[in-house]
Amino acid sequence: MKGRLLVRGGRVLDAASGLDAIADVLVEDGLIREVGVGLAARVPQDGLRVLDASGMWVLPGLVDIHVHLREPGREEDETIETGTRAAAMGGVTTVLSMPNTLPPVDTAQRVAWVQQRAKDTAYVRVRVAGAVTMGQAGETLAGLDGMATQGAPAFTDDGRPVATAQLFRGCMEHARVADVRVIEHCEEMSLTNGGCMNEGPAAVTRDLKGIPNASESALAARDLEVLRLTGGKLHLAHISTRETMALLQRAKEDGLDVTGEVCPHHFTLADEDIPNRDPNFKMNPPLRSRADVEALRVAIGQGLVDVIATDHAPHAREKKQKPFAEAPFGIIGLETLIPLSLDLVRAGLVTPLRWAELVTSGPARVLGLKDAGTLRVGQPADITVVDPATPRTLEVFASKSQNSPFAGRPLQGGAVATLVGGTVVMQRGAVLARPWL
């Protein structure tokens, strides 16, 4: 529903402009019309709808740049409709859809197909990443130039790494010319070698084959050396180890255009927290040691991390009910993004404004999205209203799949309203409408 809407009396956290103040946000015809103190007293009341945000935080809509929507080809796990419904429930208004579908999104035509499907069925904005290689087979480069022209803001073979340094070089050279960022899944597959959880004492006690930290950091080191050679823009996805974080820090100090992402599960849980062999705790990269968890939290506190993203990876129940070693990697995360990441604020590692940056303007900046991550006047009215304090427990998720290690776990905070283009898509746990996009 368009028209005029006033989001009244919340703590407005707009990291893009540095704003942290109790204020009102006026929305008119789907756009941010004004942000300021006391708007409620001077805005004409005729036809004005009011969303009372007293005691809440008001942010630009959250941007999640690592989401698997599974469509086309794996609709038993998730669809664009159900995945974006989960995003709306979690306060996320823009998602970047990963290309590892069936078939993979490796041509301009397939990017266009997902874009059209999103227009027809999505509850939030969907941006589409293009695959680096044809069929994500790691042999020949995909149609990168055409996908960039079609609007793909990133290239990635996520789910697996770019197979060789030479292919990665070619990808970086194309992406540099197209001004598109490459997102890398850092995993040296020969070191993973069939492992299914972090290598260490926790794997030994569970009699499971481990994945060493070096599986991630070795591939990250390769890619950063190629980045030095080619130039361009590189994003390291789901960093899970202290060694990779150290590589990121050095690359930034050397002036490379590289950004880094962490996921809430990696800075919340350690491998020792896996109950017995519960496959809902199986993801890739795996939950690491307690020392790695602490290193990620320190890096976030030091400002080294650019983005918090979920790596939302749904799998149908029958797939995740297999034994740990046989079950697929991945957990859902859209609906737990806010409560888990708010723990960083409660722990004093980041300020509320810095937290807002990590989930709004930071990811928007990484992808070069000009119409997301800010409450600037004239921008689309994508807004998330957050209750930072109320305890909650999630037993059932809006996602089509339910594979979360946080089901039934006490959480704190969450989205109470999600606006996309001025439409109230979700309010207090009820999905109300699809936006007209």
Structural commentary:
- By secondary structure, the protein is α/β, with parallel strands linked by helices.
- It folds into 2 domains: about 100 residues, Urease, subunit C, domain 1 (Roll), CATH 2.30.40.10; about 300 residues, Metal-dependent hydrolases (TIM Barrel).
- Helix content is about 30%, strand content about 25%.
- The protein contains 16 helices and 19 strands.
- The strands form 4 sheets. Strands 1, 2, 3, 4, 5, 16, 17, 18 and 19 form a 9-stranded mixed sheet that branches.
- Helix 5 packs across helix 8.
- About 55% of the residues are buried.
- The model has no long low-confidence stretch (mean pLDDT about 95).
List the helices and strands and how they pair.
Layout: E1 4-14, E2 19-28, E3 31-36, H1 39-42, E4 48-52, E5 57-60, E6 62-67, H2 80-89, E7 92-97, H3 108-121, E8 125-128, H4 144-150, E9 154-155, H5 165-178, E10 181-184, H6 189-192, E11 197-198, H7 201-205, E12 210-211, H8 214-230, E13 234-236, H9 242-253, E14 258-262, H10 264-268, H11 290-301, E15 307-308, H12 317-320, H13 337-341, H14 343-346, H15 352-359, H16 361-367, E16 383-393, E17 410-420, E18 423-427, E19 430-431
Helix pairs in contact: 3-4, 4-5, 5-8, 8-9
